[in-house]
Amino acid sequence: MHKNVRKVISSLAALVMAGTLILPCGCAKKTQLIIYNWGEYIADETIEKFKTKYPQYDLVYRTFETNETMYPNLSNGYDVIIPSDYMVCRLIEEDWVQPLDWNKLPNVTKYMDPMFRNVTYTDNKEISDQVLDYAVPYMYCTVGLVYDANKITLPEGTTDPAVIWDVLFNENANYSVGMLDSMRESIGTALNYKGYSINSMSDDELKEALEILVKQKSALHPSYGVDNLKDKVASGELAACMSWSGDHIIMLDRIEELGNSNNIDLKFVLPRGSNWSVDMMCVPTNCKNYDGAMDFINFMYDPEIAYENCEYVGYSTPNTAAKDMLDPEVSGNIYYYPDEAVFSTLEFYYTSDKLEERYTELWNTVKASA
Questions:
Q1: What DSSP character marks residue 74?
Q2: Rounded CA gap, 301 and 192, in Å?
Q3: Residue 190: partners with Cβ closer than 8 Å, 6 or more residues away
């Protein structure tokens, strides 16, 4: 064997033994990055674009339907989770999430709507003041009623919760209705119907909310669900349903896709005293890929990415540059992007151990009723 060839082989062998040889085989090991988000809450192309920009990560994407179904699974180990504001506050209190490194989030610093720095996320000021240390807004929405105006008539411009929610709770209704299979939303709607706070801890008010939900279940047999409700409304199976504002946009698209635009005139109306909420990206304390989590959160705030994701999902974007790209009919809709006057009539969901225990007990009673 030629002396130079032997030298080359010898050198290569030494590099392999030392573990320092980098071979152009595309076999570099990827670091797993696990995202845990709501169902139907990200564009497929957004995921693919992230994979292209960050090929060093093996992205695993998993979904949940409600905050309450997400919570028991946190021990499974995720790198980014996207719960709602009240759950974020609970997770901060319980030390389930860790601080974000804002030095690694330049897009968030530049494009996050400053209004989110002035939000009271919970009635515990100490926790509320810490929220943006642990989480950044992903999307936000309001809770209202979607209904087929060809079957149901409401007074134009009404914001009266007793009038609006009666569509769902009137025992004499001759149409099918849907309810979000989500404890805080459904209990909050019953409380709001009677003019009470959606965070009420009054025994009398909660008893009344329980009676409303149990009677509704017995008399109207509502469809309970989350993502499945969108298809039931779009097909015409349900004439009315409680809904997050972003789902109204998705339902309109599906109605058009199904060719039902001439048959269904779907409206969204927002009662005063109802909920507005912010779903937020945060990093669990048992995260295994912190740098990857920072890259994902920052990527989601790229204006083009945020715009495309918002267009697909239908919910309201907290990204100022992305909002500027939207159709003015969307960005100017006060149900999707409330102004200060509308925000002042709405409530956040608050949380505490006592509240969670009381509401869980009530919700379990509703679900177990005939």
A1: G
A2: 34
A3: 165, 169, 208, 209, 210, 212, 213
For residue range 211-227, what is the model confidence (pLDDT) as tens digits?
Answer: 999 999 999 999 999 99
Give me the DSSP letters along 184-218: HHHHHHHHHHTT--TT---HHHHHHHHHHHHHHHH
What is the distance between the alpha carbons of residues 180 and 209, in angstroms, rounded to a whole number? 15
162: phi > 0 → left, psi -120 to 50 → alpha, else beta; which?
alpha
Q: Which two tokens stand for residue 110?
A: 């530049």
Q: Strands 240-244, 135-148: parallel, antiparallel or unpaired by DSSP?
A: antiparallel
> CA 277 to CA 215: how far, in whole Å?
28
Low-confidence ranges of the chain (pLDDT < 70): 1-27
Domains of the chain with bracketed CATH? 31-139+277-336 (3.40.190.10), 141-275+351-368 (3.40.190.10)
Contact 221, 214 (CB under 8 A): no
Residue 175, exposed/middle/buried by CB under 10 A (0-12, 13-18, 19+)? Answer: middle
Predicted pLDDT of residue 239: 98
Strands (E), 256-316: 266-269, 276-284
Phi, psi of 269 (to 5 degrees): -135, 140
